[in-house]
Design a protein that fits this description.
This protein is of the alpha/beta class. It has two domains: 191 residues, 2-enoyl-CoA Hydratase, Chain A, domain 1, CATH 3.90.226; 61 residues, Transcription Regulator spoIIAA. It has nine helices and twelve strands. A six-stranded mixed β-sheet has the order 1-2-4-8-9-12, with helices on both faces. Helix 6 runs antiparallel to helix 7 and helix 7 runs antiparallel to helix 8. The protein is elongated, with a radius of gyration of 28 Å. One of its GO terms (biological process) is proteolysis. Keywords: Receptor. InterPro entries: ClpP/crotonase-like_dom_sf, Tail-specific_protease. GO terms for molecular function: retinol binding; serine-type peptidase activity. This is Interphotoreceptor retinoid binding protein.
């Protein structure tokens, strides 16, 4: 029952799997309940096209569970050194590696994944967020995490009534390169947004990423059918087929990347991609109205209005030297 209170799941619109974890049990509990979790939770999410892991309310957990959870999101066939934990009281270090085998299936590395965070996300949950971000496995959306500690210990000061709470274990973070980790500073999201809006933002990102194949296909068709510099088309098509879109989280990102790469390969600054945003509250055209871009405005009946229209559209003057 405690596990049910700390974990929930559902499949959202667009076939997006959603898994919320508020407390991470230790490895022993996960091992005992592994079959149940795989059958009744994980298997229900395996058919989703993308996954949202919600850790916005996750405030506790056990270090021993980190390899277990990360392994389900890491491709099989290889093991990855995800962290090294130093414990001061015992003066020992423990290496954390992904598991060579898991019960059930791993979530496909070809599917997008988003992790939601808040200022309340702390401890072991922060380490999981940090690892998935450094692996390039997940887009982190929400707020900077708390920057808490993996393990806290409460110590009495002498024989007084005063106690000191201090961190006794820390992450050495091999995936982050050196001793700089998330502790103290927190994990920065890839896309910052208030925690209460993080899920909506994540679903928008996933909708855009789901549309990428169709967008690229239409770009390829336009280049093949219309681009005047025919000799450069094969190189552009090869570029689009091999372009890395893993960091794309907005339409602005997509437009900037496409323009930079397409123009670099084509050496043509006229080759331009832009996003057309729907105009809110724009008046609808009258039935039968000419909707082509660049059409002239309707000619008014009144002569003064006609002159004003001409002056607004044309500037006529004779320059020195009798140059029109």
């Amino acid at each position: 029952s405690e596990l049910q209170r700390s974990m929930s799941y559902k499949v959202l619109e667009g076939n997006v799997g959603y898994l919320r974890i508020d407390s991470i049990p230790d490895q022993e509990v996960l091992s005992q309940l592994g079959g149940f979790l795989v059958t009744h939770v994980w298997r229900q999410l395996m058919g989703s096209s993308a996954l949202v892991l919600d850790l916005r309310h996750c405030t506790g957990g056990h270090v021993s569970s980190i390899p277990y959870l990360v392994s389900y999101l890491h491709p099989g066939g290889t093991v990855l050194h995800v962290d090294t934990i130093y414990n001061r009281p015992s003066n020992t270090t423990t290496e954390l590696w992904t598991l060579p085998q898991v019960l059930g299936e791993r979530y496909s590395a070809d599917k997008d994944m988003v992790v939601l965070t808040s200022g309340h996300t702390r401890g072991v949950a922060e380490d999981i967020v940090y690892i998935l971000k450094q692996m390039g496995r997940a887009i982190v959306v929400g707020e900077r995490t708390k920057g808490s500690a993996l393990e806290l210990q409460k110590l009495r000061i002498g024989h007084s009534d005063f106690f000191l709470t201090l961190p006794v274990s820390r992450s050495l973070g091999p995936l982050g390169g050196g001793s700089q980790t998330w502790e103290g500073s927190g994990v920065l999201p890839c896309v910052g947004t208030p925690a209460e809006q993080a899920l909506e933002k994540a679903l928008g990102i996933l909708t855009l990423r789901r549309a990428l194949p169709q967008i690229i296909q239409r770009l390829e068709e336009a280049l093949k059918n219309y681009y005047t510099l025919v000799s450069r088309v094969p190189a552009l098509l090869h570029l689009l087929a091999n372009m890395d879109f893993s960091a794309i989280v907005s339409e602005e990102d997509l437009v900037a990347k496409l323009n930079a790469d397409l123009q670099a390969v084509s050496e043509d600054p006229r080759l331009l991609v832009r996003a057309i945003m729907p105009r809110e509250n724009s008046p609808k055209p009258e039935p039968g109205a000419n909707e082509q871009l660049g059409t002239l405005p309707a000619v008014p009946e009144d002569e003064a209005a006609r002159q004003a229209l001409v002056k607004s559209e044309f500037q006529v003057s004779v320059l020195p030297g009798n140059v029109g």
